[in-house]
Each structure stands twice: as structure tokens, then as C-alpha cells.
Write a sequence for this structure.
């Protein structure tokens, strides 16, 4: 463990500590960046396999072919068909947006109810949520499969939103409630005295104040469909799959027909970089949510 | 219940004290009745509406009203005509094909002519007689006789036509996988008697505009030689609404199954897991995959029945709850009346109801979602663990059945399964702890380094170090799978720097590698399991440390500076400041997050499935002999419980749903322990205690 000191007196101790600190930072920044840079370089190399993609870029094998592939290759083989990658991207984006809307609406409604009202059964509900938040939704995946099949919902990723939302609401409710606890009750009371209804009070007065935590919940809800592999891998086919499955298949050696790691590198970057930018942009919310979550469990 | 009763209905006579109990009993018998007796009309109607809705759904989705109609048929039938003249075959002398109207000629049932009030029956009665006279050595091969409905225009069998061809012929109405051909089984004397189950040509298909043919196919044996197949055609006539009594095989053995609505049928299905499977005969029809017109002729699918039964149970539970509320309400209203002489008026009731239900309206959508997609699936999984549902049970063709705790005994009492389980569970525990602790420590170290006053450009360092958090884990894990490929980045770096041999020897020396290979195979050979596990923890460190770094820098920035200043004045060393100020504050603040992380890692599907895919495989000698046949269900050496459950459930030829369910229940119990710990740690309920 590196020791820090606030005494800013000049001395060998500080110099030594600085050297240690900076070498630590440089080392870990390299470890962080090298795999990603290698990904970038691999995505710009000719060929199919990672063999021969070295750490130091080799300009003679430079090629855009994998990016071209992403935007042109369509397994339907039809003229003018949207490429597999773009289609999967579109589907995933749709689910992600839908999920954000559904999760936010429901979590905020629920969170408002449990943070500002007293009612019978509240404690039971909160305990149930506390237990449920630990159980990933796919623990009942076989059942979800049967229900989806019965309702004719297979082969369509949009219905996953129901499962995602059911899984994300409990934790969101806790975080929202924790946040609301820090907002003085006098704020709502003032509005109510002015004659605003409960709904108006919430939308006009409380919602703007809770934006940080809503932002955090939005990031999580938006990310879930991009990361989820299990539901799409079982419920979807090639015509309806989301990006996670497509990317996985490109790196899976056992499906020799579709194994193409360099296409994966290109695709992974095209997915990863926008998401990374979104995450950076939403970072202040996230830091907020993390510390709030740490406070409240 | 409002505490402010208002004057409402005029009540004439004052009932005795026991009336409250009687009124409660009235509400027990019929929801809303007690309220009516209390003269709370509107409330009574509201309560009465609930069971009515329930009964409405039951009858709307079922067909109880059709029960007395017995074996009812809306079918359109073709009956072969007595038209021997159309026989095209040279061997007509040898056989006689007689197809008769089922109503008039079927010897199997005592049919009553339509004019005499018989009931509907469908099916044709066909008789094929072999005429052996004068053909001493010839006979008809009984197993070969088959009937088919044939298009007169094209001569092709209706069942073999494509949708487009059928459309050209005028369309087929409606055909849900109806068997168009029936084989004959028995030869009785010189004639083939066709039993109603075997040789009836029964179809709900209709070729518009053309008269189809009934084709009789049979193989002949003459003088000891099979001389081949022969076809005879008879014109089929359309016979609608043939009427007969309920045939013997039309008996309704499962009334709830055949006529029940969503609730009764749901409960029936959950208890029995189904009765009839595809191909079976029931009430004179062959079970089909799906028959829209006669739902009872559709085969039972145990998995669906269980799901629907669970959904029905949840709704019934809601009904029971409303029923209890109704009894309680009737009783309380009466008590209130006895006390004050008034009952709550409707307007007040609705106001009160709205007041109270506001929160429930906010909560309800989420509760429904959670009930349907978290709770019901889990209960389903739990129930599954008591069944024999595996890939060997082809649903629709077979039924799942309840087996009690048999599967638990297999999984936890059979030494072979237990040994595999212990290996996986042991690694799951190690993984959950090691991956969380490493991530916590490194995240803390990063936070300390970045927050150190000696470091400049904090923002830059911080931004670089949180890239792995911002970058989607799915992509980075899959990328790491390539980094640790045989030809991947890692081996290239090692080769380029000449570190390959020394590192391989070192890894072998400390037991991570099973053999000192020239090229390190990170995830592949069974002897490198330890290496794969180690790498998995390291990669998880790359992915997960930034999260804790963010969390901890956030917490450290909230520590008031005057604490450090006070410590400095007291002459505390840097280490002392860390030990007595930073460490305790950060640790207490991050304990809940740590519990969450351990829980998360316990189930961290992605970190292992994407990176190693669970590999490397087991060494065969580590796999118990008894399980060699289950290779598709066996875990790899880096599989944790969760990835194993996924593989057991969804790998081809593995689908051991019941075993997966047993392990899931086990995971559930473990997570239950985590959640108890979490509940103890969390402060979320402190304020709840006051209520």
C-alpha cells in the first residue's frame, strides 16, 4: 500500500513517494490501455484471425475490410438489405431505449410511493424488494421461456424489457428512496399547501430535484440490454438477435462458420466506444448513485 | 377505513349485537352480501363485481356450457360413396372396397339415423374385402392397407400438398395437422374390418369446388410373391351433419381439462401436469399438436400447464385476499354501525379508497411485472426441481410428472453428482471471494494514489483508469478471450520480449500450469485449469477495479479536510492518517457495496462465460464414471454454479431442467444468506422501524 503524506516539505521521502506513485499510475494506465489499443489495431488489420496482429502496428496489413464487413455483410444475401451488424445494433438500441423508459417510469413511481407515503404492507414490500434485488431474473429462465412461448413472444427482443424491468426495479426503488430521504419534506408540503395535487407536486417539484439519481438509473437501464447475453442467446434466432449474441458468436471458436475475431474487434469497438462516451458523460450521476448506494445499501 | 363516519343510509330497526358476525358470515358466502345487508349498496356492488369478474373469466375462457353436448362435431366429413364402378384397378376382382356412410353402416356404435334424433358424429366407415375365390394363393397384406383423401384434379394426396397447391385447388378448411391417412391393422377372416380408431377416414379438410377421392392403397401377395402396391379410388361425397349417438370413445374422461376455463384448467394442469399426449386417441380423435376448433384435441404440454397453473394461482390468491377484505369490511362496518348508528357513505368510501389506493396505483404496475417475471419464474423453477423434466421428455409427445425429492437425492446423495457439485461449488466460493477482494484492494489502492496530494493531473489519471468501467464489460471480456488466445496479444508480447520460456517455467513451478509448454495455452488444456482460474480473476480485476476506485474516491472526497489537519497537528504520520482516518471511514462506507459485489460475483455469468466459456474441460479421470454419459451437461473447470446451470439448461442434449432447477434452488438459498447479511448491514430499515 502506498503511503501518502500531506507534508509538502521537500525531501527524498517525497521524491521517492512521487516516483512510486507515478510509476504505479503509469503501469496501470498501460495495463488498461494496451488491450484496447491492440483491439483497435486488430480491427484495422487484414485477415480473419488474430494470428499476426502484433502489438506494434504493421502498416502493410492495414485495412478497413472489417468495418466494411460490418456495414455491408448481410446473411440474407439480398440486394440492399441492411447488414447484420447494423440490424442487430438497431434492435439492441430499440430495446435499450424502451427499457430506459419503462424502468425509469416504474421505478420512479414506485420510489415516490415508498418514500413519501405511509401505508399498510409497506414494510413487507420493502423486505420483499430487498430480497428480490439479489436474485438475477434469469434464475427462472426456463419458466420465462415457457411463458414467452405461450404468449408467442419468442424471437422478439423488445419483450425482454419486461424481464429486465422486473429485475432492475427493486434496487432502483431503494436508491430512489435513499435519495428522496435527503430531500426535505417541507418542499412537498409547501407545494401541497399551494393546492397542488400529489401527482403535480411530484412531477413539478420533486422530479427536477431527483435528476441525479434518475440519471444513474437511466444509465443502468440503458446499458442492460447491450450487456445481456443469456436471454437473447436462448430466445432469439439469427434474424432477431441482439449485439451481445452476434459479438459472442464472432469470438466463439466452436462455431467455425462465424468465428471471425477481427470482425469482433471492429464491431466491439463500434459498440463499445459510443457506450463509453455515454458512460463518461453520465459519470457524475454514476458517482452520485454509487455513493448513495453505498450509504443506503 | 375513515375514522369519521358520516350519516348515510337510514337504518330502521337496531339489530342485535351478534348481527356483525352474521353479516360477516353472509360475506363469506357471497362477496358483497354483507355490504348489502349493511345497506352499503355501492360498496356491495364493487365487492360483488370481483367474483363476478372471476367467474366471467372462468366461463369466458372455458366451455362449460358445451359440456352436455358430449361428442359434438362441427366437422365437415367426406364419406366414400358406394361407387365400385370407379375402381381403376385390374385387381378389382380380387378386392372389394366398400365405403359407407358412417352413420348408417358403422357396426361399432349403435347409430341412430338423423331423423330419429341421433347426435352428430364424424368419420367414414370403410370396409375392404378381399375376394379370394378363384385365387388360391393370393392374399392382401393387412398392414399395408391405407386410406387417403386425394384430390380428383391432380391425383395427389391432400396431406402431401403444399399450401400453394391447396390454394389452387380451392383451399383447405381448416386443417390442423389432421391425419389424412389411416392404416389398417386387422384381418378378420377374409375381410378387413376397420375399427373406428384405425380405418376411419376422418378429416376436417374440404377441397372447395372439387369432389375429392378416397384412395385405398394395399399391397398384394400372389403365389407367395409380393406383387406390389395397388390403389383403388372411390369418389368421396360430402356428408355434413351426420348424426349419431355419443360413441363409446367419445366419453369425457377429463371434464376439467376439456371444458375448464383459465382457473380450473390451470389448477388441474398444475396438479396433474397433463393427461394426453400427441398421437393418443381420445373421444374418437387423435391428439394433435394444436386444434383450434377443438381445444381438447390438442395435446397437453406439461411446461405450459405448469406456467398457466401458476398464473392462475396468483390470480386466485388475489381473489382470496379480496374475499378476506370483504368479510373484514362487512364485519367492521356493522360494528361501526352498532356503535354510532351510521355507516360510511359511498362518496366517502370512494374518496377514502382513492386516498388509500393512490400508492397502490403507483406500485401496482411494478408489482405485476415483478410477480410475473421474477416471482412466478422462480416458483416455477422451484416446482421444476420436483419433476422429471429433462431433454428425454419430449414435450407434447410425453408428459412431465411429479417425482418428489427424487432429483434432490440424485444431485446431493449420489456420490458422482455430489463430487462434481463440490468441485464447482468450491470454485464458485473461491471465485466470489477472490474476485471481490482483489477488485476491492486494487480499487482502494488506485483511489489512494490518485487522491494523494503528490499526484498532479488527477483528472487525467482518473479518466484513463476508469476506461474499463466505462467500456462495456461484454466487449472487453470477449476481447480478453482473444488476448489470451494461443496467438493472442499476451503470447505475442511474451514471445517478443523473450519471456515465454521463463514465464512458462515459473507458472509450472508454482503449479498454475500443468506442463511447462513452449507456448502457454491459457484456457485450453485440462491441465491448465489453475492458470485459467488465475487469469479469470486477473481479467476481472481489470474490469472491476475502476468501479471501486470511483466509489472510494467519491467517499474519500467527502471526508472533511479538518480531520487530516487535526491529525497533522497531532503529528500523525501518513500511515497513521491512513490507518485511523481513511481506512475506517472507507471500509464502513463500502461494506454494503462489498456484500453486493460478492453476491454479484457469485453469479457473475459474463466474467467466466465470455472469457473462458467455462473451459478447460475436466480431465476425464476427474469425471466420475457414472457421469460419462452426461458430457453435454458437465461443467468446465472454470464454470461457476451459474454458468453451469445455464449449460445444464440450454446446451444441446443437456436440457436437464430438473437438475438445473435443483441447483438454482441451492443458489437461491446461498443468496438468501447474502440477503440476510445485507439486510443486517443496510440502514434502509432503520426509519421503517418507527412505523
Amino acid at each position: 500500500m502506498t503511503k501518502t503524506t500531506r507534508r509538502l516539505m521537500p525531501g527524498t521521502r517525497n521524491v521517492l513517494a512521487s516516483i512510486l506513485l507515478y510509476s504505479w499510475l503509469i503501469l496501470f494506465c498501460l495495463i488498461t490501455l494496451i488491450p484496447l489499443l491492440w483491439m483497435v489495431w486488430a480491427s484495422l488489420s487484414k485477415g480473419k484471425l488474430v494470428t499476426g496482429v502484433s502489438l506494434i502496428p504493421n502498416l502493410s496489413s492495414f485495412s478497413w475490410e472489417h468495418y466494411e464487413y460490418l456495414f455491408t455483410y448481410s446473411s440474407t444475401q439480398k440486394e440492399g438489405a441492411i447488414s447484420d451488424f447494423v440490424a442487430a445494433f438497431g434492435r439492441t438500441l430499440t430495446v435499450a431505449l424502451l427499457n430506459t423508459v419503462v424502468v425509469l417510469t416504474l421505478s420512479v413511481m414506485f420510489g415516490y410511493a415508498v418514500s413519501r407515503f405511509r401505508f399498510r404492507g409497506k414494510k413487507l414490500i420493502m423486505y420483499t424488494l430487498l430480497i428480490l434485488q439479489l436474485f438475477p431474473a434469469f434464475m427462472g429462465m426456463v419458466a420465462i421461456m415457457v411463458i414467452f412461448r405461450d404468449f408467442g413472444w419468442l424471437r422478439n427482443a423488445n419483450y425482454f424489457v419486461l424481464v429486465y424491468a422486473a429485475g432492475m426495479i427493486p434496487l432502483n426503488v431503494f436508491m430512489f428512496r435513499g435519495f428522496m430521504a435527503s430531500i426535505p419534506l417541507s418542499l412537498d408540503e409547501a407545494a401541497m399547501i399551494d393546492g397542488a395535487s400529489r401527482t403535480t407536486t411530484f412531477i413539478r417539484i420533486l422530479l427536477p430535484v431527483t435528476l441525479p439519481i434518475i440519471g444513474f438509473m437511466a444509465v443502468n437501464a440503458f446499458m442492460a440490454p447491450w450487456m445481456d447475453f443469456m436471454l437473447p442467446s436462448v430466445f432469439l434466432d439469427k434474424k432477431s438477435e441482439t449485439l451481445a449474441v452476434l459479438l459472442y458468436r464472432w469470438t466463439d471458436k466452436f462455431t467455425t462458420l462465424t468465428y471471425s475475431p477481427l470482425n469482433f474487434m471492429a464491431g466491439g469497438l463500434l459498440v463499445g466506444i459510443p457506450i463509453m462516451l455515454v458512460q463518461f458523460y453520465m459519470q457524475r450521476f454514476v458517482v452520485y448513485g454509487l455513493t448513495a448506494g453505498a450509504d443506503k445499501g | 377505513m375513515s375514522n369519521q363516519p358520516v350519516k348515510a343510509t337510514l337504518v330502521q330497526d337496531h339489530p342485535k349485537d351478534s348481527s356483525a358476525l352474521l353479516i360477516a358470515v353472509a360475506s363469506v358466502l357471497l362477496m358483497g352480501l354483507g355490504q348489502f345487508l349493511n345497506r352499503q349498496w355501492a360498496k356491495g356492488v364493487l365487492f360483488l363485481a370481483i367474483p363476478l369478474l372471476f367467474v366471467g373469466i372462468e366461463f369466458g375462457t372455458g366451455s362449460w356450457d358445451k359440456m352436455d353436448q358430449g361428442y359434438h362435431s362441427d366437422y365437415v366429413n367426406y364419406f366414400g360413396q358406394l361407387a365400385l364402378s370407379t375402381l381403376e384397378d385390374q385387381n378389382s376382382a380380387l378386392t372389394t372396397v366398400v365405403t359407407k356412410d358412417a352413420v348408417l353402416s358403422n357396426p361399432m356404435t349403435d347409430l341412430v339415423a338423423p331423423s330419429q334424433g341421433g347426435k352428430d358424429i364424424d368419420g367414414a366407415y370403410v370396409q375392404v374385402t378381399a375376394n379370394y375365390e378363384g385365387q388360391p394363393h393370393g392374399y392382401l397384406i393387412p398392414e399395408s392397407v391405407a386410406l387417403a383423401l386425394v384430390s380428383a384434379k391432380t391425383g395427389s394426396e391432400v396431406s402431401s400438398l403444399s399450401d400453394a397447391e391447396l390454394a389452387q385447388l380451392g383451399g383447405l378448411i381448416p386443417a390442423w395437422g389432421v391425419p389424412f391417412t389411416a392404416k389398417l391393422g386387422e384381418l378378420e377372416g377374409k375381410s378387413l374390418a376397420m375399427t373406428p380408431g384405425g380405418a376411419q377416414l376422418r378429416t376436417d379438410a374440404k377441397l372447395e369446388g372439387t369432389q375429392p377421392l378416397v384412395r385405398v392403397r394395399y399391397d398384394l401377395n400372389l403365389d407367395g410373391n409380393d406383387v406390389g402396391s395397388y390403389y383403388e379410388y372411390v369418389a368421396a361425397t360430402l356428408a355434413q351433419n351426420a348424426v349419431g349417438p355419443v360413441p363409446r370413445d367419445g366419453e369425457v374422461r377429463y371434464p376439467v381439462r376439456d371444458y375448464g376455463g383459465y382457473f380450473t384448467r390451470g389448477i388441474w394442469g398444475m396438479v396433474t401436469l397433463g393427461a394426453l399426449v400427441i398421437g393418443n386417441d381420445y373421444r374418437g380423435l387423435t391428439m394433435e399438436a394444436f386444434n383450434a376448433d377443438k381445444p381438447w384435441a390438442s395435446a397437453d404440454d406439461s411446461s405450459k400447464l405448469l406456467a398457466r397453473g401458476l398464473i392462475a394461482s396468483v390470480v386466485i390468491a388475489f381473489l382470496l385476499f379480496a374475499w378476506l377484505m370483504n368479510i373484514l369490511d362487512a364485519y367492521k362496518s356493522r360494528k361501526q354501525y352498532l356503535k354510532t348508528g351510521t355507516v360510511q357513505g359511498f362518496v366517502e368510501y370512494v374518496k377514502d379508497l382513492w386516498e388509500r389506493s393512490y400508492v397502490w396505483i403507483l406500485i401496482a404496475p411494478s408489482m405485476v411485472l415483478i410477480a410475473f417475471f421474477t416471482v412466478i419464474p422462480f416458483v416455477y423453477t422451484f416446482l421444476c426441481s420436483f419433476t422429471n423434466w429433462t431433454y428425454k421428455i419430449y414435450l407434447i409427445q410425453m408428459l412431465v410428472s411429479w417425482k418428489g425429492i427424487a432429483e434432490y437425492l440424485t444431485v446431493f446423495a449420489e456420490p458422482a453428482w455430489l463430487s462434481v457439485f463440490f468441485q464447482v461449488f468450491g470454485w464458485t466460493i473461491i471465485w466470489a471471494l477472490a474476485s471481490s477482494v482483489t477488485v476491492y484492494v486494487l480499487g482502494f489502492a488506485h483511489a489512494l494514489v490518485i487522491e494523494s496530494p503528490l499526484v498532479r493531473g488527477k483528472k487525467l489519471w482518473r479518466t484513463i483508469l476508469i476506461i474499463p468501467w466505462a467500456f462495456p464489460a461484454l466487449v472487453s471480456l470477449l476481447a480478453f478471450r482473444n488476448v489470451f488466445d494461443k496467438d493472442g496479444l499476451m503470447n505475442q508480447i511474451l514471445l517478443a520480449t523473450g519471456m515465454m520460456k521463463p514465464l512458462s517455467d515459473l507458472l509450472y513451478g508454482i503449479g498454475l500450469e500443468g506442463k511447462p509448454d513452449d507456448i502457454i495455452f491459457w484456457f485450453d488444456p485440462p491441465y491448465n485449469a489453475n492458470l485459467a482460474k488465475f487469469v479469470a480473476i486477473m481479467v476481472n480485476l481489470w474490469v472491476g477495479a475502476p468501479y471501486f476506485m470511483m466509489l472510494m474516491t467519491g467517499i474519500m472526497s467527502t471526508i472533511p479536510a479538518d480531520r487530516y489537519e487535526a491529525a497533522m497537528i497531532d503529528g500523525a504520520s501518513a500511515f497513521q492518517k491512513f490507518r485511523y482516518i481513511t481506512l475506517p471511514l472507507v471500509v464502513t462506507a463500502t461494506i454494503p457495496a462489498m456484500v453486493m459485489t460478492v453476491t454479484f460475483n457469485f453469479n457473475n455469468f459474463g466474467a467466466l462465460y465470455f472469457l473462458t466459456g467455462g473451459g478447460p474441460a475436466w480431465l476425464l479421470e476427474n469425471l466420475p464414471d457414472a457421469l460419462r454419459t452426461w458430457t453435454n451437461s458437465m461443467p468446465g473447470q472454470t464454470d461457476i454454479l451459474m454458468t453451469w446451470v445455464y449449460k445444464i439448461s440450454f446446451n444441446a442434449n443437456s436440457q436437464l431442467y430438473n437438475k438445473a432447477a435443483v441447483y438454482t434452488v441451492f443458489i437461491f438459498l446461498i443468496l438468501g444468506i447474502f440477503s440476510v447479511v445485507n439486510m443486517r448491514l443496510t440502514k434502509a430499515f432503520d426509519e421503517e422501524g418507527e412505523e
Summary: Residues 11 and 249 of chain A are 57 Å apart (CA to CA).
